[in-house]
Amino acid sequence: MTKDELVTAISKKLGGSKADADRALSAVFDTIAGNLKKGQEVSIPGFGKFSVGKRAARTGRNPRTGATIKIAASKTPKFKAGKSLKEAVN
Q1: Are residue 46 and residue 73 in the same domain, yes or no?
Q2: What's residue 57's pLDDT?
Q3: Which residue segment(s) compose the domain that 4 sits in?
């Protein structure tokens, strides 16, 4: 499902316009991303938890040349599904 398909489904379910659904969905995504950027978790009971994971610096290999390269430490978003979402999928 693409974002446009999700917006269409939300607008049909709520009976509103696609523009309103798009603004609401964008606001949700922006809020989650903003909190993750600050290093905060976002927990939605029954759905899941968004958090920030840390990757340590490491060495890797350039697959083209075989040369050893240094890969810098980074942060990555994580998502852990909640019990209700897991049950709905299974």
Answers
A1: yes
A2: 96
A3: 1-40
CATH code, domain carrying 59: 4.10.520.10
- Predicted confidence (pLDDT) per residue in 34-71, tens digit: 999 999 999 999 999 999 999 999 999 999 999 999 99
Q: 46 with 90, same domain? A: yes
pLDDT value of residue 11: 95
Long-range contacts from 48-56, C-beta under 8 angstroms, 24+ separation: 48/79, 48/80, 48/81, 48/82, 48/85, 49/79, 49/80, 49/82, 50/77, 50/78, 50/79, 51/77, 51/78, 51/79, 51/80, 52/76, 52/77, 52/78, 53/77, 53/78
Backbone angles phi, psi at 23, to 5 degrees: -65, -40
